[in-house]
Amino acid sequence: MRYQEKLFEGLSVEIIISEGEYEGRYKTRIEEVGVRIISIGVPVSQGLVVPLREGTNLEAIFCDEVSAYSFTSVIINRIATPIPNLIIEFPSKITKIQRRQYVRLPLVTPLEYQVLENNGLSKSNKGYVIDLSGGGILFKSKSSLSEKTIIIIRTLIGDEKIELPATVTRSIKEEENNDFSISAEFHEISENMRDKIIRYIFDVQRERRKKGLI
Q1: Four-way CATH pick for 3-98: 2.30.110.10, 1.20.1250.20, 3.90.226.10, 2.60.40.2250
Q2: C-alpha–C-alpha distance, residues 80 and 114, integer Å
Q3: Domain residues of the chain, as ranges?
Q4: 191 falls in which pLDDT band (50, 70, 90)?
Q5: What is the pLDDT of residues 137-182, one digit of tens each?
Q6: Which residues pair with 192 in a beta bridge?
Q7: How far apart are CA 3 and CA 64, in angstroms?
Q8: How many CB atoms lie within 10 A of CB 5?
Q9: In angstroms, rounded to a whole number, what is the distance separating the alpha carbons of residues 214 and 206?
Q10: CATH fold group of domain 105-210
Q11: Closest listed residue to residue 15, CA positions, set 73, 80, 68, 77
């Protein structure tokens, strides 16, 4: 399939500027799609317009209901009126990054979880993350959990503390250390939270590739 066909007016995209004075990540949207160019809204950060210059290289990431995609481009023009827009080159290639439900990022991060019981939440239990995806988590704990148990997980995504409801799908005892390896699928989390997890996974993978770790 030509992934270029997934670009349309109104599509939310995140652009990444990797170097220069305005290095960072910015949310915007596609305003118009042409044959050779794309018009996107000028990004705003902390209430101020980000004055990206002509010639600035960028990476763009966007998602549909099951996958994420990326492409590289360059700003070729800036339009101030009637609405501030950036004109970028239409990408020659769009890469499908990965399916959300299968992407797993190996991690070692502390977590806490509570079990949803009939009379409320259990006491807090500790463990640590083994890997993370947009659809679920694998972690280790000293306690076993039955399949279909609903738990509330608290852990870190980068420097941000997050809380995620999840349903246990598997719990396996490891004979060598008596730990339990527990798989859980996220349960009714918002798409904003899922996208945040996916973006974090992309960021970590990108940094690991730069360092030659993957």
Answers
A1: 2.30.110.10
A2: 52
A3: 3-98, 105-210
A4: confident
A5: 999 999 999 999 999 999 999 889 999 999 999 898 887 788 999 9
A6: none
A7: 11
A8: 9
A9: 9
A10: Thrombin, subunit H (2.40.10)
A11: 73
Token digits for 42? 């000028």
The Cα–Cα gap between 149 and 115 comes to 7
User: What six digits make up the tokens of 132?
Assistant: 């993370």
Q: Pull the structure tokens for residue 118.
A: 């009939």
Contact 17, 58 (CB under 8 A): yes
Is-same-fold flag (3-98; 105-210)?
no
Residue pair 55/107 in contact by the 8 Å Cβ criterion: no
